[in-house]
Each structure stands twice: as C-alpha cells, then as structure tokens.
Design a protein that fits this description.
TIM Barrel; single chain; alpha/beta; 12 strands; eight-stranded parallel sheet; globular
C-alpha cells in the first residue's frame, strides 16, 4: 500500500514541499488531516455529548486511533547525540577549554547508542562531536561512515581559527559530515566572531557545501547570530536547548523573545531538548517550561521543531540526562497541546527532511 505524508503548514512557517513520502519498513505512510482540539471545538463536542449516558463517546474515534497509530509508525530521529570511544589511544580527549578534563567513567560509544536505538525503536540519530574531543572529529566521522543509513554527523571547528572555512570543507568533503556545531555559550564576552567579517568566508563555504550549523548559544548572544543568519538565508541553522533561557531571571520572557524572533527566518530550526536544565522545579515532566515550549511552537510551527536527548545508554545518568523512555514520553504524552501529527513531526519527520535520511 502506498502512502504519502501531507503536512499542514502553520502561518509563518517555511512553505516547503506540501507532500513528502517516507518509507516505513516495506510500506509508505500518509498522515491524515491533523486533528487539533481548540477551545471552540472542545466546547462544541462537550455540548453535543452532555447528558448522554453512552460513555463510549469519550473514547477516541476510529479516525483518532488511526491518526495515533500512523504517528507512532513515523520515523524517529534523535537529533542530538554525543558519542565518544573508550579507545583513548585512537580517539584521545582534547578539551579545548579544560586541559585537565578527565574522561567520564562510562564511554558513550556508537555501539551503545545503536543498541539503545534498536531497543526503543529509534530509526536514526544525528551525532554531535562532544566538546571534550576538541577539534578532531575522526570518531563521529568514522561512525557515520560505518553506519551511513543510521547516522549523520556534526563536528566541531574552532570558531576563531583563521582557516575555519577550509576546515569545514575538509570535514564535509573528505569525511562527509553534515555540518558543524558552534558553542558561543563558552565564549562569554568573546562572541564577536558570530557576526564578524572574518567569519563570512565560513558562512559562504557553508552555503556552497549545504552545511547545517547548530548552535549551543545563550539568549543574549542571539542578536549577533541573527545578523549573520539574515545575510545567509540558504544556510540551515538549528538552535539547541531553547537557547538555555534562564527562567529565574525577571527578564526571561524578553530574553526568550530573541529566540522567537529567529522564527521569521525559514532556514532556522529549534530543538525541544534539555528541558530539565531550564526548569526551575527540575521535576519531570518540567511543566514550568511548557509555556516556553508553547511560545516556541506558536512561533516556529510544528514543521521546524526537532527532538534530541544528548547521551546514549548508561552514559545518560552520569551526565544527568533522562532515561530514553522518559524523553520519548515527554513528547508523546506530556506536552498537552501537541497533536499526534505534531508529535510525529517533532520526533522524526522534520529531521528526516532536514538531514535527508533515507527511509
């Protein structure tokens, strides 16, 4: 049976191709029209069913169940996965900011990741070079070459290296990386490279190569990045972890608006990730962050939101990450305003489109 995915575009989103086809096992899948509860539709439903003795009306309809089943059959992509080897002779640690950094007791290897992915039905992952391996991206590159169907990889390059444009070309052409991650958050007070003239060759090269850049960045650094994004509309940019907005600050809403402003650029995407580090309560499922997620959703729409978790298997707990089952449940069940179609897009459909995974 042949199916095709049809996306409903939200106002302000990038009007990409209206129809896309994703292979799910031996078949293709199509999403039916999105079902979304609004206040008006809920009240209409409640009024129509009030006083009825038949409680079967409260059960999901056949269409709703089918919608949910199709959503769960969609591809799942973890777009933020740090991996490193336990073979320190071949892949030594070289933290650029902490020369005395000690390796974590548990290595988050690609084999550990694949085992966990298979256990929980994760189809693909985007590998992100951890900062403690420094600028040598050999391990993530080898993982992507060894398992090209399952992985895409992002490396790190020194953002102030005079040869950063040529380094980008080297890692993408020679080693087939999909792009790079930059971490202005580690350059507090020294982030002028985000919009400097010296960085323009890097962005021109990214445009030429079709690179994807993701940024671990603080909210107050976003205006500098926005200036460069405006100049390079063909470079895809992903913002990690809700720009680590600080909810304890009285100006948190104003700061978060700097991220929301980037939604006006159709080449910018955002990850719903690491809510535990933003939440003031730090209690799962971090409901105090849901108003932020709602604002992010309203700004970017469901077609430019992504999901990622950080570390594989046993390496999660040692870095204060959630178990994978809770990460999945957070999107699938806990965030109340997402529709089934939204959840499918955020958990994988969007990432398949951005990183061009073969389904």
């Amino acid at each position: 049976m042949a199916w095709a995915i049809t996306r409903k575009h939200h106002e302000g989103c990038n009007p990409l191709d209206a129809n896309e086809t994703f292979r799910i096992g031996r078949r293709f899948m199509r999403f039916p029209p999105m079902i979304e509860w609004t206040r008006r539709s809920f009240l209409k439903w409640a009024g129509a069913t009030s006083g009825m003795a038949d409680h079967s009306a409260l059960r999901p309809s056949r269409t709703e169940r089918r919608n949910r089943d199709l959503a769960r059959a969609a591809p799942i992509v973890d777009t933020h996965m740090h991996v490193w080897s336990n073979d320190l002779a071949r892949f030594p640690f070289s933290h650029p900011y902490k020369p005395d950094f000690k390796p974590p007791p548990i290595a988050g290897t690609a084999e550990m990741l694949l085992q966990e992915m298979d256990q929980f039905g994760i189809d693909f992952a985007v590998l992100v070079q951890p900062i403690y391996l420094g600028w040598d991206n050999t391990y993530v590159a080898e993982c992507a070459k060894t398992w090209p169907r399952r992985f895409r990889a992002h490396g790190l390059i020194d953002p102030v290296d005079p040869d950063r444009a040529s380094k980008l070309e080297y890692w993408m052409r020679r080693h087939r990386l999909s792009g790079m991650r930059f971490s202005p958050i580690y350059y507090e007070g020294r982030e002028d490279w985000l919009d400097s003239e010296a960085s323009l060759p890097l962005w021109r090269k990214a445009e030429e190569l079709g690179a994807i850049f993701n940024f671990f960045i603080a909210t107050h650094q976003l205006p500098r990045l926005e200036k460069t994004i405006r100049r390079f509309p063909r470079v895809s940019v992903v913002i990690d972890h809700l720009a680590r907005v600080d909810l304890r600050r009285p100006d948190a809403a104003t700061e978060f608006a700097k991220l929301l402003r980037l939604a006006s650029y159709p080449n910018v995407w955002a990850k719903i990730s690491e809510l535990q580090f933003i939440s003031v309560s730090a209690e799962y499922p971090f409901r105090d962050t849901f108003p932020l997620v709602r604002r992010l959703y309203d700004a970017f729409g469901p077609d430019r939101l992504l999901w990622g978790t950080g570390f594989p298997g046993a390496a999660r707990a040692q870095d204060r990450r959630l178990p994978l089952e809770k990460e999945l449940k957070l999107i699938r069940e806990e965030i109340p305003f997402l529709t089934d179609e939204d959840r499918a897009k955020i958990l994988g459909v969007n990432a398949v489109r951005l990183w061009k995974f073969k389904t």
